[in-house]
Amino acid sequence: MSKGSNNKVKAVRVVVPDVTRNEESSRLGSGLSAGEARDLRESLSPEQRQQVETTVEELLSLLGSAHAIAVLSEFAFADGPLRFSELESSLDIAANTLSVRLRELTNAGLLVREEYNEVPPRVEYEPTAKAEQLFPAFGHFHVWAIDHELDGVDTDLSR
Questions:
Q1: Which of 12, 35, 37, 62 has the fewest Cβ atoms nearer than 10 Å?
Q2: What is the spatial order of strands in the sheet that 82-83 belongs to?
Q3: What domains are defined for the chain?
């Protein structure tokens, strides 16, 4: 099912991989075609490939945690550091869950937590360079979602 797109969005459209496009026009966020990415993967030694696959698995597991993508997405589209209270008010997430996700993302090296010695206490979170390299993926997902919806997917997380 396709959604209509507006002219404003078309001006910022990015090209994302699609099985209906040929490899020449299909570009991944890193600037590699699907074929180039496949060649790079195949050029890795077995140990390097295992390490890369493990890292991807760990990343997807982390991002698959409840609300992790929503939290990182806030940073991807923010203009600077975010406070816990800002995240709490912009996301419909329980405070304890938000706290756990922020801790996990910080422990993974995707966010930096900065405490200020003030009254009342102030804590800000900022994405690391490592996290910022993931942010184009959020743009790709949003562009894709402008044109598409998933069929038959139950998105009710309350069950």
A1: 12
A2: 82-83, 122-127, 111-116
A3: 7-147 (1.10.10.10)
